[in-house]
Design brief:
Oligomer: homodimer
Radius of gyration of chain A: 11 Å
Strand content of chain A: 5-15%
Largest sheet of chain A: 2 strands, antiparallel
Shape of chain A: globular
CATH topology of chain A: 434 Repressor (Amino-terminal Domain)
Number of helices of chain A: 5
Number of strands of chain A: 2
Strand order of the largest sheet of chain A: 1-2
CATH architecture of chain A: Orthogonal Bundle
Helix content of chain A: 55-70%
CATH class of chain A: Mainly Alpha
DNA sequence: TAAAAATGTAAAGTTTTATTTACTTTTAGA
DNA sequence: TCTAAAAGTAAATAAAACTTTACATTTTTA
């Protein structure tokens, strides 16, 4: 699993802390997701995708099959 | 959060056990998701959406804002 | 270049997802 | 209608998401 959170966050010119607050999670959660430390819930993924105006499938990409 | 897993599973004429096996999770996990008992990981959501040939956003719907 | 802001990291603790086992109830087929 | 498959439920456990706190490092900006 890789994701475009860091890039899309940069596009919106938001800090990890700002994004975290917007999404109702901790800054460390954002950091961990950006570093592929974990696999967020679909709810959080949906909220992020909506904020970034991207489909979940483009924001989070499963490596292989 | 609601979801269309039960409906889409019916469209593919699969049992909970078959779907579970296909996705590499337990039958109870499928059951719990169908009953909105929990919020799956984005990875599992992506696998389901791909199997059902639907965007994650259509398979899993956040209730409000 | 010094200070402040942002990011990285880490550890302990909580909550929730997911597994396993087992049993009951419902549904479908012979 | 009897039977078997499927689905519902539940509880104990394991694993992972997420929180909180705290501090170090990097980047930005005054």
């Amino acid at each position: 699993m890789k994701n475009l959170v860091k890039v899309e966050r940069a596009r919106l010119d938001m800090t990890q802390a700002e994004l975290a607050k917007e999404l109702g999670v901790s800054r460390q959660t954002i950091h961990a997701i950006e570093k592929d430390k974990f696999n967020p819930s679909v709810t959080l993924a949906l909220k992020m995708a909506r904020l970034f105006n991207l489909p979940v499938e483009e924001l989070f990409i499963i490596d292989e099959d």
